Amino acid sequence: MRKIVLDLAVTLDGYIEGANGEIDWCSMEESMDFPSFLAGIDTVLFGRLSYEVFQKLKPGADKSKEEQEIWQEIDRKTKIVFSRTTAQIPGTQVIQGDLIAATEALKQEPGKDIWMFGGAQLIAAFMESDLIDEYRLSIHPVILGSGKLLFSQLARRISLQLVQHRSFSSGVVQIVYARNRQA
Which H or E element spans position 102? Predict the structure, then answer.
């Protein structure tokens, strides 16, 4: 069965974006090997608002060849947007119905793992419904003090098991936890 992998950048104090939606604190370095992560997925999940933000993040011609290649690779993935208000987005599957049933069916389909990109409300709904199988968080060495918290909407405890941890020259620490459903 395919896994849902939450892969996010987060600040040391748990924010996924600043008070004004800024993510300028987020950095990526070659040794993080993001292309290997992308090779292991074939589908990306978005909330409607996070999909709109994602579209604005696409690099222009002024960006590095490596950054453009990463975004091209992401564009080749199946994109699914969960939305209560938007029924159609060209080139993208939109799911408006039962989140749990749709996701369980998606996990049963053949293919690679599925990347939970975000937004915060969708992540919270997936966590509450126990749909996330792996948490891959890149903790950045910055404290924002305000913004959008990753775990602010969680109403229950979730048990995890450490799978991997790595640190990078930028000061970013990446931790990967698997959902421990036996606990």
Answer: helix 99-108
Given pLDDT bands bounded at 50, 70 and 90, which one contains residue 43? very high
Angle at 56 between CA 50 and CA 62, to 5 degrees: 145
Closest CA to 142 of 43, 26, 54: 26
Domain ranges of the chain: 4-179
For residues 116 and 54, the answer to whether their CB atoms sit within 8 Å is: no
Mean pLDDT confidence for 76-92:
90
pTM for the predicted model, two decimal places: 0.91
The Cα–Cα gap between 166 and 172 comes to: 8
Sign of CA dihedral 78, 129, 83, 154: negative
CATH topology of domain 4-179: Dihydrofolate Reductase, subunit A (3.40.430)
9 contacts 168 by C-beta, under 8 angstroms: no
Q: What is the spatial distance between Cα 40 and Cα 134, in angstroms, rounded to a whole number?
A: 13
Strands 41-47 and 173-179: unpaired
- 3 state DSSP class of 111: coil
d(CA 23, CA 129): 27
